[in-house]
Design goal:
Layout (H helix, E strand, L loop, with lengths): L1 H11 L9 H29 L4 H27 L4
Length: 85
């Protein structure tokens, strides 16, 4: 009978009342630049793993890392000023 509970949990996990609130969606939108910067960083790291390391790959990774860190600093400063949730 435990499989019925598992199926029920899987079905109810997508119920209408489980949707994110407006505040949660606003928080996600506020963090979207940081999320995209992290995606760029992961893309750069993956690209450097797929080929022989080159100076261009290293620069791309460093640039993506700096962008991700700068975006996180902006978000942290907003949170410190009370602008972010």
């Amino acid at each position: 009978m435990s499989h019925i509970v598992t199926v029920q949990e899987a079905v109810t996990a997508f119920a209408d009342w489980m949707e994110p609130t407006d505040a949660e969606l606003d928080a996600i939108e506020l963090e979207m630049p940081a999320i995209l910067a992290d995606v760029d960083l992961v893309d750069a790291e993956i690209a450097s793993l797929e080929t022989r390391p080159a100076e261009l790959d290293a620069r791309w990774t460093r640039r993506a890392r700096r962008k991700a860190l700068a975006t996180r600093v902006v978000l942290a400063n907003r949170a410190g000023c009370g602008e972010a949730a």
